[in-house]
Every structure is written in structure tokens, then in C-alpha cells.
Amino acid sequence: MEKKINLTIGVDFALKVINWDADTLIRLQLWDIAGQERFGNMTRVYYKEAVGCFIVFDVTRVSTFEAVAKWKNDLDAKVQLPDGSKIPCVLLANKCDQSKEGLVNNSSQMDEYCRDKGFIGWYETSAKENINIDEASRFLVSSILENDKAAGHNEREQDPDRLALDSTESSEGRGKGSCC
């Protein structure tokens, strides 16, 4: 029987909503940029204004893990935060509900790989079974919020339409939230 593989062509979009706390709803705008070589020349457009990233590989196909470093290098070369630092990036080992191949079978080696490549962390996930998706999202959002807090309030003062991401500020007439 031939295995069917669904490919993203170009780019796909999704919205993930997180109930951060009793007062805060966070909307993540997710761009799936395919990961196929033929779309590599378009990545700068897709990365524009990103404040966080997931790089996803398929634990059942070692070849997808082999491409992880290339995508992380591409990201780091083309986008950074306003202070010049790298955007936080989490590595997702997807399809953890299936048989795993390669490095993902060794947690300590995966931790070391992530440190070496500049990932802030990694999660075994299953999009199909909704395993660790919320945990990975909350982890990334926490890092985004820490970066925003460390950046201070200068950008908010320059851009009156920017929403406060912390619980200490709110703009008159607006609720708290973020679109990432």
C-alpha cells in the first residue's frame, strides 16, 4: 500500500488561541512555510515581523530532522528581534504517537542538540492526537513575553497601536492580548 503524504504548497495559515489567564487571551498567528527546498527563497517574506518560531520535524522520517539545522540557520540569518537577538525558536518532534527514528529517541542528546543549535527547547508532539501542543505553545509564548518585557516600553511609546503584553499596563479602551 502506498503511503499518502500531504504537502503544504507555499504557505498555510492557522490561528491558535490560548487562554493565558483569567484576563488574557492570546492569539498566535501560525504560518506553515512548507519546509520544502523549492520554497526556500520566499522565507524572508514569511519571517517578517515574527517574534517566535516553531521548527517541526517528523519523528518517523529521519530526513526531516536532517533539515532542521538548515531551517534554523535560515531563520537566524533572516530575522531578529528589534534588539538584534535571535527570535525564540522551539523544536517540535511531531508524530510522537508513532514509532520514532533517530536522535529523538535520546532525550539528553536532543537537549544537547537544541543547546548547540540555539533552540530554547523542544517537545515531542502529535498534532493528530493533540499531545504537547498547548504546552509547547505556552512555553514559546512565555519566552516571547519575557523578550517583550526585557525590551522595555520604548516601542509601546513609539507605536500607540501596539498592545501591552504584560499585566501591568493596558491601553485605555483596549483589552489585553497579543497577536504573534
UniProtKB/TrEMBL annotation:
InterPro entries linked: P-loop_NTPase, Rab29/Rab38/Rab32, Small_GTP-bd, Small_GTPase
Pfam family, one: Ras
Membrane topology note: Lipid-anchor
Family that this chain belongs to: Belongs to the small GTPase superfamily. Rab family.
NCBIfam families named in the record: small_GTP
Protein name per Swiss-Prot or TrEMBL: Ras-related protein Rab
Compartment(s): Membrane
PANTHER family reported for this sequence: RAB FAMILY (PTHR47981), RAS-RELATED PROTEIN RAB (PTHR47981:SF39)
GO terms for biological process, alphabetical: endosome to lysosome transport; phagosome-lysosome fusion
Main location group: membrane
Cellular component, GO annotation: late endosome; lysosome; membrane; phagocytic vesicle; trans-Golgi network
Region described as Disordered: 150-180
Domain of life of the native organism: Eukaryota
Function of the molecule: The small GTPases Rab are key regulators in vesicle trafficking.
